[in-house]
Structures are given as structure tokens and as C-alpha cells.
Design a protein that fits this description.
Length: about 475
């Protein structure tokens, strides 16, 4: 049964014809319609790179003006596109309605002028976006550097509207030409922002250089025709291992992939958590937030929590008490942050049921009603099914030293929440050597700023083409012909 339609936004034109039906992820009997993208392949890429010149006829202040106005127009109470996107996401995503609605309420703030300027200044430098930046090198030559935008395809993740918003903002900041492939579990957010952009600035270069549409991932006929250097210079790919690996096959000279691939995260709690009861409760609130936020769907979510309490009898008593506190705080989280999960892994539930039969090595707190659970290891090792931890199920592990934690940190480790701050400062020069990409205060794992690096790279800088022009005065720079 068709639930909603996903038109094609093609450089400001809305196309609602040539419908093809696609199943929703959450049920084979439910579907949505989108235009057959193969019929628009000849119009989807930018016909001539010279057509990007209009993006350089506007100032950065003009870009800020437009994005700020778009942000104001995205208010869910008055924007019908956002209202429709919210309703579609409730059907398509693995989140409850209360949490989805809250994410759209917060969407306008992402476009605030000061935040967009901060992204541009911190990650690139506005001077490099506005014009040529001069400098003289040690050998005497003068160079001028400028960051140019690129023709790009974006394959954003569908775990929240923020990803679509950031994608469109990054495209505007870099003055790029973007084709956004809609994720099936967030089918209308990027489209809603694009349609709002058209309403705010119908003939603006930012509107003319944005396309948003859906095609099924892995459609080789579609992708082989589109993912070619004469059409696209950059592919920004979020998503799972299989999808990122699939896109990688198209990489070749002239076509770069910027991979924001899946990660896992960890948490480290120092012995200071047990100094007094008030501190223990505060730590439990913070840890519960890192576990429960967005129902543990984010790659930054806490799953395995290492606690420096010792693995002896006294340490186990401490960590078991912490586990009880975290469970209570987890269940008490407001529904706009976290709820009982919409769907639960059957394999995970089977493992939890097995633990419940014997608490010798692992103590299970909660989980009887699939509301979430805390597994407290009674030895210094996590459970052997850690890749399955989801739906607000976390594992607390007692350890005697930080050295036991570093073995769990790999190149796949994105965020590490740490308590207290002094421990984070102690570890920040060591954990990156093992692969850690972000260290943050406990409780802030899923509270992410937009002006930071991501996944240990600078995606905004990589979206740009860094071009330099040089001048060499033979009296300053040794000419080769005089040797």
C-alpha cells in the first residue's frame, strides 16, 4: 500500500511523474513512490562545469542570508513540507514519533547564521572560500590559494534529519553542486529542506545547484552512468559497511570518495565516580544519556562501558550498584530523547534470555519487557555478542587499569565518552594511537557540534578542490635554466 510520494527535486524543478513503487524498510506491504531516476539521468549531472560560475558571483554573506532564512522557514508548526517529512519518517524509520518530532523542532537552529559561519571558519577559513589567499614560501615564490566547490553526489545516512541538513549546509558553504540520494528511512527531510530553499530563494544559485531524489541503492545501471568523473568529482558516502564498499568500486582518477562509514563507540569511567552517592547518581545520568539518546541507533552511542573500579569483590559491588543506577536513569529518560525501542533484535533477546539463566559471569538488570537493559560483567571482559548491543542495551565491564581498555580501541572506534575530565586529558594523547577519533565528556556522546572534524577527517575541506596559483620571480626563485 502506497504511504506517500517522494518527488524529484531537480535544480529547483519539482518532478512528480514516472512513478516507481519502492518498499519501506519496516514492512514489505507498505511502500512509497518516487520518479524513475533513470529517465532523468541526462539531466541529473551538471551539463557543463562552467555552469558553476554563478556560485562565485555571490558572497559568503549572501549564502549566510539565504541559509538563515531557510532555517527560519523550517519551523515545523508552519512548514507543510517538514510536517509531511515528519509523518513519513514515523512510517519509515526505527524511531518513535515523539523522538522524530523533537528532531524536527530543533532543525531550524542548525541553520543559524553564527553556527554556519563557525563551520566555515573553523573547518576551512572564510577567506579561502571568498577569494585567493596570498602567501610567500621559503624559496621566494608567491602563491595564492582558493577553495573551490566540486560536482558531488551525497549518500547521507537516514538516522536523523540532521544529516540531511548538514549535507545541504556543507554544499552551500563550499559552493558545490550536489545530487543528494535520499535514504529510504528518511525519505522526505532533504526534499523538505530543498523545497523550502526554493520557496525562500527560487532563482538563487544555491537552489539551482541542488538536486534531491531517490533511487534504490545498488542500482548499477543508474550508478554506472552517474558515478563517472565527467559527471561527478566527489562522492560523500555515509552508511553501512556494505554500501560504502559498494560505492568504492566507482572510485577512479578524477572521482574521489569521502567515506563517513559506520563506527562503534566506547565509554571509560574512572574511580572518581564512586567518591560519593551524589557523584554516582550524576555519572549514572550521564551514562544513561549516552546509551539511550536516539535509542542507541547512533554510531556515537555508548554500548560497552569500561569502569575503573577493579575486578575484585569490592570492585564488583561498586559496578553492580552503578549498573542499577544507570538502568533507573535510562528508563527515566524523557520520550523526546529515548523510549523503549520500536523494534528489537531477536538474536540479542535470545542472548539476554541466556544470561538470565545464570548470573555467574554476567548480571542482567532489566530487559524483561524489552525496555532496555544493563549487562554488568562479573569479570573483566565484555560479553561476546557486543556487535548486537542495541535498543538501549549496554554492557558495563570492570577493569583494573586503563591498559585493559586500550585493547578494545580500534580504527572503528569513533567516540569515547570519559569521566572525569582529568582522565580524558590523561588519555587524549594515547587513545588516538589505537584509533579513537573523538574524546568527549561523559553524557555528551550524542550531543554533537557541527563545526568539528568527523570520523578523524575534515570532510568539508575534502569536499573542496584546493587550487593554487604561483608567481616565480627569477631574481627570488632559482630558475632551472641557470644551472
Amino acid at each position: 500500500m502506497n504511504q506517500f510520494d517522494v518527488p524529484l527535486f531537480l535544480r529547483g524543478e519539482l518532478i512528480a511523474t514516472d512513478w516507481v513503487e519502492y518498499p519501506l524498510r519496516r514492512g514489505v506491504e507498505e511502500s512509497f513512490r518516487a520518479p524513475d531516476m533513470r529517465k532523468y539521468l541526462d539531466r541529473l549531472p551538471l551539463g557543463n562545469p562552467r555552469d558553476m560560475a554563478d556560485l562565485y558571483s555571490i558572497s559568503f554573506e549572501d549564502i549566510l542570508d539565504v541559509l538563515e532564512e531557510v532555517g527560519r522557514a523550517l519551523a515545523i508548526d508552519s512548514n507543510p513540507y517538514i510536517q509531511e517529512a515528519c509523518e513519513a519518517t514515523v512510517l519509515a524509520a526505527n524511531y518513535p514519533a515523539s523522538m522524530i518530532a523533537a528532531s524536527y523542532v530543533n532543525l531550524p537552529a542548525v541553520f543559524a547564521r553564527e553556527y554556519v559561519r563557525e563551520i566555515a571558519e573553523c573547518r576551512i577559513g572564510v577567506d579561502y572560500l571568498e577569494g585567493w589567499v596570498d602567501q610567500t614560501l621559503a624559496d621566494g615564490r608567491d602563491i595564492s590559494i582558493r577553495a573551490f566547490g566540486a560536482r558531488s553526489v551525497h549518500i547521507p545516512a537516514g538516522n536523523g534529519g540532521l544529516v540531511s541538513a548538514i549535507t545541504i549546509i556543507r554544499n552551500a558553504i563550499t559552493r558545490s553542486d550536489a545530487i543528494i540520494k535520499i535514504p529510504s528511512n528518511d525519505p522526505l527531510t532533504a526534499l523538505a529542506i530543498a523545497r523550502t530553499l526554493r520557496d525562500v530563494a527560487p532563482d538563487h544559485p544555491l537552489t539551482r545547484h541542488l538536486s534531491v531524489g531517490y533511487w534504490k541503492g545498488g542500482d548499477t545501471a543508474m550508478e554506472q552512468a552517474l558515478f563517472r568523473p565527467e559527471h561527478v568529482e566527489k562522492i560523500v558516502a555515509w552508511g553501512g559497511y556494505a554500501s560504502v564498499k559498494h560505492v568504492n568500486q566507482y572510485v577512479q582518477p578524477g572521482l574521489e570518495m569521502i567515506a563517513l562509514d559506520p563506527k562503534r563507540s566506547a565509554t571509560i569511567i574512572g574511580p572518581e565516580a564512586f567518591e560519593n552517592e551524589d557523584t554516582l547518581v550524576e555519572v549514572a545520568k550521564r551514562a544513561a544519556c549516552d546509551i539511550g539518546m536516539a535509542n542507541q541507533e547512533a554510531c556515537a552511542s555508548a554500548r560497552v562501558i569500561y569502569v575503573l573500579c577493579g575486578s575484585d569483590a569490592q570492585g564488583l559491588e561498586k559496578i553492580n550498584r552503578l549498573g542499577e543506577h544507570i538502568y533507573r536513569e535510562l528508563i527515566a529518560l524523557p520520550d523526546y530523547l529515548s523510549t523503549a525501542p520500536v523494534t528489537v533484535s531477536r538474536e540479542l533477546m535470545d542472548n539476554l534470555d541466556a544470561l538470565r539463566l545464570d548470573d555467574t559471569f554476567y548480571r542482567l538488570i532489566g530487559g524483561e519487557e524489552r525496555e532496555g537493559a544493563i549487562i554488568v560483567s562479573q569479570l573483566d571482559e565484555p560479553v561476546d555478542f557486543t556487535p548486537l548491543l542495541s535498543g538501549r542495551v549496554a554492557n558495563l565491564v570492570p577493569v583494573d587499569s586503563v591498559a585493559q581498555v586500550t585493547r578494545a580501541v580500534t580504527a572503528y572506534t569513533q567516540t569515547i565518552g570519559v569521566y572525569p575530565e582529568s582522565l580524558k586529558k590523561q588519555l587524549r594523547d594515547e587513545l588516538p594511537l589505537y584509533g579513537a577519533q573523538r574524546l568527549t565528556s561523559l553524557g555528551y556522546a550524542c550531543n554533537v557540534a557541527t563545526a568539528t572534524p568527523q570520523d578523524a577527517i575534515e570532510p568539508l575541506r575534502r569536499m573542496c578542490k584546493w587550487v593554487f596559483e604561483e608567481s616565480c620571480d627569477p631574481d627570488k626563485v632559482m630558475p632551472l635554466w641557470r644551472f
